Amino acid sequence: MEHAIKESRGDRLFTIINYSVLSLLLATVLFPLLHVLSASFSSPQAIISGRVWLFPVDFSLEGYKTVFNYGLVWSGYANSLFYAVVGTTINVILTIMAAYPLSRKDFMGRQFFMFLFVFTMLFNGGLIPTYLLVKQLGMLDTRWAMIIPGALAVFNVIITRTYFRTTISDELLEAAQIDGCRNLRFLWKIVVPLSGPIIAVMALFYAVGHWNSYFGALIYLRDQGLYPLQLILKNLLVQNEFDPTMMGDVEQMAQKAYLTQLLKYSLIVVASLPVLIIYPFVQKHFVKGVMIGSLKE
Amino acid sequence: MKSLWRRTFNNWELYALFALPLLYIIVFQYIPIYGIQIAFKQFSPVKGITGSPWIGFDHFIRFFESYEFWRVMKNTLELSLYHLIAGFPFPILLALSLNYVMNQRFKKFVQMVTYAPHFISAVVMVGIMLVALEPRGPINALLQAVGITPVHFMAEASWFKSIYVWSDIWQNIGYSCIIYLAALSGVSPSLHEAAVMDGASKLRRIWHIDLPGIMPVAIILLILSMGSILNAGFEKVLLMQTPLNMESAEVIDTYVYKVGLVSALPNYSYAAAIGLFKSVVAFILLITVNYTAKRIGNESLW
């Protein structure tokens, strides 16, 4: 359309500035990420002396060797995987169980229930009463504490309900009902298969949430064997609580000091690896999720 | 017409489905709300929530009169407002900027790269900040190269808020702009065509067409962020705290966590009172902002 009219000088200037600013932003976002990645593949000496910028210096796998010799990292990985898989499964099932009835116009009391749910987004008991509840339920220091207290996110229920409302037509339900199809069967045979995109989006939201969370573990868990990866990372990265006996066969003290610095870079990469690997595949789903979430009724 | 009871009975399966999520909400959301009463009690674990004696507003008064109150309130408000004001325009600018990129591959690439940091966990994010900002790290090397003395960023109270806010913008600018891009794609192309015909420059089109087009979304997001203004990214703040920057790093939520769960003598009631104070203020703020937005711009959450 606008190619028909010659661009004015002002507009060309705008375009040039626009591309420049975006390129600068691109560099600002990319540089720290590439720097960490390169540092993790460099030698400890090169990092300490500040010679690493955009590319690895004195290529070495020392950091990764140390990370994988660190027993807690492995158990953290296993635990996080468990919490993410089991937690997400429960999340998704509960979300559908809540969202589907709420999406139905013939579900009596749905406005009241909706209010009951949404109110918890605006006001909640807060940290201490929730902690006391979990304690009273006997979940402290068990795997349940990582899964049950956050089993349902009201925000996701709203997104899912809106999706059901806009994609599953009333006619479809009526036709099914005339054919004698009952509610549960309709949900299982028709609604769920038609809702692949929203189920994928929710699963992604929940799974990333599980993978990235540390605070629940911080307050509910004492047993290191149950710690998710993020909490172990917090102790190593943020609080520098390295246990020298777990660092493998490094002999000298000086060498260890060098290594802890390198270890941090490798840890950052190792911890983000699962997300980075699946990121290109799920990116468009997240975009879709945000868009669906932004639909106003 | 079928009676209400009949219709409800016919849909018993929906209620059966809904029972479990409802139970979850009641137990994990409403029981803690019921538990808030410990803020008005002298809680003792032996007697339990219901059995502990009432003491009225003592915990609140003690908090308001304590030395910590002003420091924690000031930090919370400063951090939140700084975050809100600095963080609000950037996703909008990015969305407007991307909207005028005609090269689709470049646009896709910028989007893919800028969305990515959003998926980094708070722990890893703070880890990256720690290695990047340490006295001998890359940022300081850069400063030294241009002749500025190195700064121990993470250990200085005066730097805390800026590091928090700008790292957050770095991490979330791309992801937050998605919703504005969606709003921009909803702007009718005929408006732009007409404007081009009238000889409007791109800046004019942004000002008169695009900005009004995304205003409703921006207002809704602003209302939402006002509601959580006192939450101030608690998990990241907690990770960024060091004994040296605590003066400006202690916010309400981290204070509640320390008083209630970390200290040698946890004071559940006192901590719950502080938490409740925060929730009530946040709730009032949200209602007020929503009401004002409704009056002025006809936009509201409900």
TrEMBL record, chain A:
Keywords: Cell membrane, Membrane, Transmembrane, Transmembrane helix, Transport
Ranges where the ABC transmembrane type-1 domain occurs: 77-271
Localization terms from the record: Cell membrane
Subcellular location, principal: membrane
Transmembrane segments: 12-34, 81-100, 112-132, 144-164, 186-208, 262-282
Matches recorded under SUPFAM superfamilies: MetI-like (SSF161098)
InterPro entries (UniProt xref): MetI-like (IPR000515), MetI-like_sf (IPR035906)
Statement: the UniProt record of this protein carries the keyword Iron: no
Recorded family membership: Belongs to the binding-protein-dependent transport system permease family.
Membrane topology according to the record: Multi-pass membrane protein
Tree of life domain: Bacteria
UniProt name for this protein: Carbohydrate ABC transporter permease
Automatic annotation (TrEMBL), chain B:
TM region(s), chain numbering: 12-31, 81-101, 113-133, 173-192, 213-234, 268-293
Alphabetical list of InterPro entries matching this protein: MetI-like, MetI-like_sf, UgpAE/MalFG_permease
Localization per record: Cell membrane
Pfam families in UniProt: BPD_transp_1 (PF00528)
Main location, first listed in the record: membrane
Presence of the UniProt keyword Transport in the record: yes
Residue ranges constituting the ABC transmembrane type-1 domain according to the UniProt record: 73-289
Protein name per the record: ABC transporter permease subunit
UniProt entry tagged with the keyword Nucleotide-binding: no
Top-rank lineage group of the source organism: Bacteria
Entry's family note: Belongs to the binding-protein-dependent transport system permease family.
UniProt topology in membrane: Multi-pass membrane protein
Keywords for this protein: Cell membrane, Membrane, Transmembrane, Transmembrane helix, Transport
